[in-house]
Structure formats: C-alpha cells, structure tokens
Automatic annotation (TrEMBL), chain A:
Region forming the signal peptide: 1-20
Membrane topology reported for the UniProt record: Multi-pass membrane protein
Name of the protein this chain belongs to: Ubiquinol oxidase subunit 2
Localization (cell): Cell membrane
Residues covered by the Cytochrome oxidase subunit II transmembrane region profile domain: 20-117
Keywords: Cell membrane, Electron transport, Lipoprotein, Membrane, Oxidoreductase, Palmitate, Respiratory chain, Signal, Transmembrane, Transmembrane helix, Transport
Family: Belongs to the cytochrome c oxidase subunit 2 family.
A GO molecular-function annotation: cytochrome-c oxidase activity
A GO CC term assigned to this protein in UniProt: plasma membrane
TM annotation in the entry: 41-66, 87-107
InterPro entries: CcO_II (IPR045187), CcO_II-like_C (IPR002429), COX_ARM (IPR010514), Cupredoxin (IPR008972), CuRO_UO_II (IPR034227), Cyt_c_oxidase_su2_TM_dom (IPR011759), Cyt_c_oxidase_su2_TM_sf (IPR036257), Cyt_o_ubiquinol_oxidase_su2 (IPR006333)
BP-aspect Gene Ontology terms: ATP synthesis coupled electron transport
PROSITE patterns: COX2_CUA, COX2_TM, PROKAR_LIPOPROTEIN
Length: 294, 696
C-alpha cells in the first residue's frame, strides 16, 4: 500500500508531464517493486517538505525586488535596518524544524529501505551472486547450480537476495524500476535485496564508470512467473555448457558480450573463490583449516 | 632492448611518436582523433602566439619584472584570474563536446571514441575544480581581502608567488597532456583500482596525479597565507567582527584549505606510490583497499565544495549590500552561519558513497549531518533577501548574478537534500541527477559568484567599468544556458541514465539530451560574450574611467583608495571605527582627505622564487609522468636549491620614498576634488568617475 498526502498528490499532478516523459525508461518513478515504490513515495514527501522553506524564497524574492527597486519612492527605505529578533527566530527556526522532520524520515526510511535488509515476499528468497566483470555482469544461482551473463531471471513476487563482488575495478549494480544500487568491489561482498511485483523486463545497469565498454554494460532483469522460472532453470541445466575455470578465465577478460549467456553448471565455490583470490590470508586460512581438521 | 632504445629511454622516458596527438590523428584519421589533434594544435598555436606576441612587443623584461616575479597581491590575484579564465575556456569547450556527443550518440557511436569521451569528462572535472574554480577564488581573495582589512600585502608575499607558480605549473601540465600523451579516464576523483597500474598503466592517471598534487600543495600554502594575513595584518580598529563578510568567508575558506587539502595531497601521493613503487594502498590485492582512498579523497572533497562556495557567498554579501543600498541584514547571523558551514563540512564526507555498503545507522547519521548544513545555508539565503527588504535595489550586472544565484541555488539545495537521503541516493547516485545537482550548486554557487565578483571589482583593479550591455547579454546567456543544459539532466537522471555514458540506447532520452546540448552552446555563447565585454570595455576605457575609486557607492575599505590602487594600497594604514569602514568615513564626510603626513613605505621586493619553483615543479611533474628520471631529479634539485638560496637573501624589501607616495596620493586627491559626485541612477553612465554623492 502506498500512502500519499495531499501535497504528494498535488506534486504528482504537477510532475505529470515529467512522469509521462519517463514512460518506457528505466525510472524509479515507474516502480515495479515495493522498494522502488517506497523510494518514489519518499521522493515526493521530501519535495513537499522542502516547499516549506523553498516557496517563501520563490514568492518573497520577486516581491522584494519589485517593491524595493530603485525608483519606487513609495516603498520605505531604511538603509540602517539590519536586524529583527522575530525574523531571526523564524529564519533559523523554520529550517531547523524542517530538518528535524526530514531527519526523522531519514532515520526511519534508511533502516526500512536498507539494501542489506532481507525482504518478505511469496516464498524463500532467491539467492543470486553477482560478479562485476569488464563490461558484463555474471549472475550465479548457487542453489540452482547455474549461471548467466547479462541476464537476471527472477520469479515475480519472491524476494531476491543478491551478493555482489567484482573481479576487476569497482562497479555499481542498479535496476532502477526495482530500486537500490550498491557497489561491487573486488575482495569484498556487498548485498542487495529486491522484489519484482509483477512479471516484466526491467533494465539493469552498471552506474560506475569502468572504461571504454562502460556504456554497453546493461542487462535485462526478467521477472517471470514461478512456473516459467522453474522451466527456465530446468532448460538451463539440461542444455547449456558448464562454466568451468577455462570459460571463466575467458569471460573475465575485457569484452562486451553480443548477447546474454546461460551456463548449465558452475563450480560451487566460484563466488567465494573470486573474493578469496584478493585475500592473501585466504589460502593460508584454508591450509590451516585443512591441517587442523586432520 | 637495443642500445639505441635504452639511450632514448634514458633521455625521453616512455615518450614515442605515438604519444603525440598529431601522429595519432595522422595514423588513424577518425573524427575523434582529428578533434584531439585540433585541440592539441590550439594549445601549440596559443602558446606560440603568446611567445611571439610578447617578443614582437619586446615585453619580456616588462612581463618578468612587473608580473611574473612580482609579489604584489594585486598582480598575483589578477594572474590567478587569468589562469582561471583560460582554463574555463578549455573546460567549457570540452563540456560542449560531451553534450554534443551525447545528443548525437543515441543508438549511434557519435563523434567521439569512448576513450576520448572518458578523457573529456576527466579533464573537464579536474580543470573546472582545480584550475578554474580554485584559481578564480584565490585570485579574487588575493586581490580584495588585503585591501578590505587595510593591509599592504598578504603575510607571506613570496609564498603567495610560489603558490601561484605551482598552480600555473599544474595548469600547464593539463595543457601539455593535450599535446603529448593521453589524459586519465578516471574522472576528476581518480578512483582506484581503476587508476592503478593493473588497469591503467598509461600516462593518463600520472598526469592527473601530478597536476592535482601541484595544485593541492599550492592551495595548502595559499590557505596558510590567507589565514595568517587575516589574523595578523588587520589594520587598527578592524576587529574580526568589523570585517566585511567577504573577509569572513575568505577566512573560513582558508581554514578549510589548511585542513582539507593535505588529505588530497596524501591520497594522490599514496596512489603515486602504488603506481611507481608497487605499494598496495588501494590495489585490489595484497591488502590494498580502495575504500581508504574514497574516505581520504572525500575528506578533502566535501570541504572542497565549501572552499569553492564560501568565497562566492562573500561576494554576494558585498554585492547585495552595495546594490540594495543598505546595510547587510543579520551580519552576525551570516558570520555564524558561515562558520557553522565550515565546521559541518568536515562531518558529511560519507554521503559521497552511501552505496558502498555501510550499515543503515552510519548512512542515516551522515544523511542527517548533511541536511543540517542546509540550515545555515538557508539562513544565509533569507539574510540576503532581508538585506534587499527596505532597500533600494539597483539591477546592475553583479546584482543580476546575485539574484539568479539565489533562485537557482535554492533549486540545487532541494536536489541536494534528495541526494542526502540514503534511500533516495540509492536510485539517483551515479546518474545524471547527481551531475545536475552539483552543477546546480557550483554554477550559481561558484561561477556566478566569481563572475559577479569580477564585474564588481574589475573597475577597482583596472580603473574603468566593464560594459553594461555586454554584461547583461552575457548574464542572460549564462542563466538560460544553465537552465537549458542542466534541468534536463535531472529528468534524465530520474529516468535512470548513468553519468559518463559515451552513448545511450534509450530513444526516450533524446529530446532531453538535445535540449541539454543546446544549453551547452548557449553557455559557450555566454563565455564568448564575457570576452566580447572585456574587449569592448578596453576599447571604451577612456569614457568609463572611475579613477576616484568608488564607482558603486560601496562600504568596505577597498573602495576608499584610487582605482587602480597604488602599489602600497594605503598612504597611511587606515583606522577603523566600526563595521562598513568606508561607509562610516563617507557618512562622517571624511573621505578623500590627505593623510596628516607622508612617510616612507616598505614593500616586499620582487622574487624569482615563484616562477623558478613553478617551472622546476612543472619539470618534475612532467619527468615523473613520462619516466624521464633525470628531468625529475634535476627539477627537484633546482626546487630545493632555489629555496635554500632564497633563504639567504637579505634585501627582501624595497622602500617607496615619502615623496613618491605624496605625489601619487596628491594626484589622486586632486582628481577626486575635481570629480563630479554622482547620484546612483547615473552609476552606469560615463558620468561615473568613481565619486559617490554620499561622500560629499
């Protein structure tokens, strides 16, 4: 449910042309999931709150300029007037109150819309591991044992939990109509939780510049029905090549794939291995565990 | 490696034929390379034209003695502004190229290769921040602040000249990168690991590192210089709370420079250690972590925003009070607001990377901290409007900029609050919404302020007013151009278009990109008309002279001396009795009185240290970029040697005899006595000789 104040509605009407312009674009103003939908709501609430301090400027400034212009001898002229206690209280007080109201929004909404927070939806979360490569995204479905490149397929209504890392420079994954954005960094794991409300195809992108193929690093996030999802998994497992070390090495090189790829199987520790690759202590840890288990 | 190759490497490092833009264009005559070669040709022709022109006029000696080695704060200020205008021209042309590229490259490759596009947004940002904005504000403060506090020069005049030398060297390195080699594609923030050897082993990131390092060292010294000047060199009676607001904002900016520039110098030097000596501060592997860079960089980067904006706030305070013909409303309120902004600016850096995966508590904390800066900023806006309230507003060119600033800046503030809210930042970060926001802050909040200051103080510096008509044309273009170029970017960002895209594939973006592209050309016209204004004004200078020195009936001390001011600024240091120092003098009808007696004046003598360190520092940078080690070592030795040699110098002052002072001041006072005092409606006519009615 989206609650929206009167001011929010008025703004929505005022911004109709802009919203109409958004049609067909990957805009969070056309939300296709609860996160983006809440973000849009917050966007309008914030603009409405801001109007309290902004409108006096937009209305007051032209009036002052007109009334006190040189040549208008009807207005009073007091060159020494330079302080007023009530006005001083107003100009400090009102912005303080607006910021307090905004701060409340920030605190609650930042926790509510924390990209790391697990979401409730229909069924268990789908686990996806995303690896940023130059200039493509690799998506691993660890539970299903398959992987894709530049294509994220999720069942509509079910929460999606994405773990991210990079096997190159920093990147940032965003699917604007579903919400969120989080950096992917080598040697580290970040997280993003999303849900698609309804079936559809939503554009996903890398927003962090990473070289000459940056502008081509786009992918489709397809939300499908649960039945379609199961069918898609089964097809992938049956008829697609495995993502072995050799294929991964090829994939990790700089390139822009012509079309999305699907792999029927992946090594179970691929994602962890990509992260550990940058951690000097990791092999030692592994050796230590091996030794200690003997 | 053959011995010939080894020798050439020893001599010229990694320069080869392919390093030259002209050679690359010859071998691969694509439009993108031809544009690059054209830019390189402009640099070469420009440099040759300057060298040829100075030789033709036989002015080398004059240039060296009167300008390059001068330590006069006024001349150094003017040279800073010249650098800023040259660099503004280049970076604005680059902006127009990028706007053109994006307008064309909808499902099309456009006119620029993706790599060239990457270089353009990197140079555009780096130049606009480090070599346009910083020199411009440093130049204005240099010129105006010592006059406003009643000083003869800054506290460390030679260091001032060294700062200028280093900034000029950095700017020169940026220009050289157009001709030899390729600039970084890592943006103005140079984020590793992208800028590490593993991903970009070329000279680009090295050019960026050394240009920025030179500028950051120069700026740290500038900050120290200005702060000490304000603390120690105020004239008798000029208490801190009697200083004009421009001095307050200069002080806050200087303090920010002192604390915020070292993290940048450190970050670029650590990145250099990674690149040159195989350290691993910010690499992906061996314990490096780029998050440390992000923190260091924005520990500089956020206060930097206020380093840029505060001086403009100061300009607006002076301009609005002057042209509203009224005292500033809420002087103390404005001072406290300025200081609050300066302090808070150190507490918000994390909002530049809400999307790096911190937990919600941390993000919320920094989001709220960011919004609190909105309070003092809002107060300032209201204070300015209340200054106009009950005034007599004159719509001169600087005032027009101040008005456009208020309206535009408030819109930018609104989008800033949106970005300060982490859940909203997640959907607009790294999109054109962000690009629109910071241009929306920096164009009115910095550029308009600097241009307003330039229009306001130009008559003081050169003795004649700038042309009003061309000033208005230029203003109209800056404002329309801004709205056309950047409002569409808000829409595009909200539509999910990331920044730094060499081409786009959403046809829905096209109309907005076309409008933004048009806006780019209008902004170019604005800059062109600014230069036309200068040209026209120089030609008409005789009829627009304001030698008496107070063309705008203003209140601070800089207006109490002739225009241009004498080298020693004040015959005797003025004694201040209240705020609005010169306003009070005029009110008491004590302006333009001869001093009780004339004495000898000691002024700092010229020094070659500034240009020598600038040239040698530039050589070090160039040597390091290209691995020409001998050049870097020789340059470094010259730097160290010059500083040591300079410290043994004893004749650091020269005396201006009392007779000469008396003659200069006497000439000015006699002209003031003859001049006609004019009422305000005549201030933009040639009747204005710089004597205001309020003084008589």
């Amino acid at each position: 449910m989206i609650r929206r104040g009167a001011a929010g509605w008025m703004l929505l009407v005022a911004l109709m042309p802009a919203l109409a312009g958004c049609a067909g674009t990957p805009s969070f103003l056309l939300p296709a999931g609860p996160i983006a939908s809440d973000q849009r709501h917050l966007f309008f609430v914030v603009i409405a709150l801001m109007m309290i301090v902004v409108l006096p400027v937009f209305l007051g400034l032209p009036w002052v300029l007109w009334r006190y212009r040189q040549g208008n001898d009807k207005s009073d002229y007091q060159p020494k007037w330079s302080f007023s206690k009530p006005l001083e209280f107003a100009i400090w007080g009102v912005p303080v109150l607006v910021v307090v109201a905004l701060a409340w929004q920030v605190w609650t909404q930042t926790h509510k819309l924390d990209p790391y927070k697990r979401l409730e939806g229909r069924g268990d979360p789908i686990e996806v591991q995303a690896v940023g490569l130059d200039w493509k995204w690799l998506f691993i479905y660890p539970r299903q044992g398959i992987a894709t490149v530049n294509r994220l397929v999720v069942p509509a209504g079910r929460p999606v939990h994405i773990s991210l890392t990079s096997d190159t420079v920093m990147q940032s994954l965003m699917i604007p109509r579903l919400g969120g954005q989080i950096y992917a960094m080598a040697g580290m794991r970040t997280q993003l939780n999303l849900i698609a409300d309804r079936p559809g195809r939503y554009l996903g992108e890398n927003t962090q510049y990473n070289g000459k193929g940056f502008h081509l690093q786009k992918f489709d996030a397809d939300a499908v029905t649960p039945a379609q999802f199961d069918r898609w998994i089964a097809q992938a497992r049956a008829g697609r090549p495995a993502l072995d070390a050799e294929r991964y090495a090829q994939l990790a090189k700089q390139s822009v794939p012509d079309e999305p790829m699907v792999f029927g199987s992946v090594p179970p520790d691929l994602f962890a291995g990509i992260i550990d690759k940058y951690d000097e202590a990791a092999p030692k840890k592994a050796q230590f565990q091996e030794a200690s288990s003997k | 490696m053959t011995s010939v190759h080894a020798w050439s490497y020893w001599l010229i490092g990694r320069i080869d034929w392919h390093s030259f833009a002209f050679v690359r264009a010859w071998r691969d005559p694509s439009l993108s390379e031809i544009i690059a070669a054209g830019a390189a040709a402009l640099v070469v022709i420009g440099a040759l034209a300057v060298i040829g022109g100075v030789t033709w006029l036989g002015k080398w000696r004059y240039l060296w003695k009167e300008w390059l080695t001068s330590v006069d704060h006024k001349k150094i200020g003017i040279m800073y502004v010249v650098i800023a205008l040259v660099m503004l021209t280049r970076a604005l042309i680059e902006a127009v190229l990028m706007r053109t590229q994006q307008a064309i490259a909808v499902n099309h490759s456009g006119i620029l290769s993706p790599e060239h596009f990457g270089q353009l947004f990197s140079t555009h940002g780096s130049i606009m921040i480090f070599f346009m904005a910083m020199p411009f504000l440093t130049g204005l403060i240099n010129y105006v602040m010592p006059l406003q506090i009643g000083a003869r020069d800054v506290a460390f005049p030679v260091m001032n000249s060294i700062s200028l030398g280093l900034t000029a060297a950095g700017a020169a390195i940026m220009m050289v990168s157009l001709v030899i080699g390729k600039f970084s594609t890592g943006g103005w923030s140079g984020y590793p690991p992208y800028t590490e050897m593993a991903f970009n082993s070329g000279v680009g990131p090295d050019y960026w590192i050394w240009a920025v390092t030179l500028s950051s060292i120069g700026t740290t010294m500038t900050g120290i210089n200005f702060a000490v000047t304000i603390y120690k060199l105020r004239t008798a009676g000029m208490h801190l709370f009697r200083m004009p607001l421009f001095c307050w904002t200069s002080l806050c900016t200087s303090i920010l420079m002192i604390f915020a520039m070292p993290p940048l110098t450190l970050a670029t030097l650590m990145l250099a250690l990674d690149r040159y000596l195989d350290f691993h501060f910010f690499t992906n592997d061996l314990g490096g972590n780029m998050m440390n860079y992000a923190n260091l960089f924005w520990l500089f980067g956020h206060p930097e925003v206020y380093i840029l904006i505060l001086p403009a706030f100061g300009v607006y305070s002076e301009v609005i009070s002057t042209f509203a013909t009224k005292q500033l409303y809420g002087y103390k309120s404005l001072v406290y607001a300025t200081m609050a902004i300066a302090v808070l600016s150190f507490t918000v850096w994390l909002h530049h990377f809400f999307t790096m995966g911190q937990n919600a508590n941390i993000n919320a904390f920094f989001g709220i901290a960011t919004m609190t800066i909105g309070i003092p900023t809002g107060v300032k806006v209201y204070d300015w409007i209340l200054t106009m309230y009950r005034g007599r507003v004159r719509f001169t060119v600087p005032m027009l900029y101040a008005i456009a600033f208020i309206v535009t800046f408030v819109i930018g503030g609104m989008s800033g609050i949106i970005l300060a809210i982490p859940p909203l930042d997640y959907v607009v970060h790294n999109t054109l919404f962000l690009v629109a926001h910071f241009h929306n802050m920096l164009i009115p909040g910095l550029l308009y302020g600097m241009i307003a200051g330039y229009q306001f103080w130009f008559p003081k510096a050169f003795g004649f007013r700038l042309d009003e008509r061309w000033g208005r044309i230029s203003f109209a273009c800056w404002v329309t151009g801004f709205y056309l170029a950047f409002m569409p970017l808000y829409v595009l960002g909200a539509m999910g278009m990331p920044r730094r895209m060499a081409a786009v594939f959403q046809p829905e973006y096209r109309p907005w990109l076309l409008i933004a592209g048009l806006g780019g050309f209008v902004l170019l016209a604005a800059l062109a008309s600014l230069f036309v204004q200068l040209w026209v004004s120089v030609r008409k200078r005789e009829e627009n002279r304001v030698f008496v020195g107070d063309p705008w009936d203003s209140r601070a001390l800089e207006w109490s001396v002739s225009a241009p001011p004498p080298e020693f600024n004040f015959a005797t240091l003025p004694e201040v009795r209240g705020p609005d120092a010169f306003g009070g003098v005029k009110e008491r009808k004590q302006a333009y009185l001869p001093p009780p007696r004339y004495g000898d004046i000691e002024m700092p003598a010229n020094s070659t240290l500034g240009p020598v360190l600038g040239i040698a520092g530039g050589a070090v940078a160039f040597g390091l970029v290209w691995y020409i080690w001998w050049l870097a070592i020789v340059g470094m030795l010259i730097c160290i040697g010059a500083v040591i040699a300079g410290s043994f110098r004893r004749d650091t002052h020269r005396t201006i005899p009392a007779d000469e002072v008396a003659e200069t001041i006497g000439h000015w006072l006699s002209r003031a006595a003859e001049a006609r005092a004019i009422p305000r409606p005549l201030e933009t006519t040639s009747a204005n000789q710089g004597l205001a009615e309020s003084a008589t």
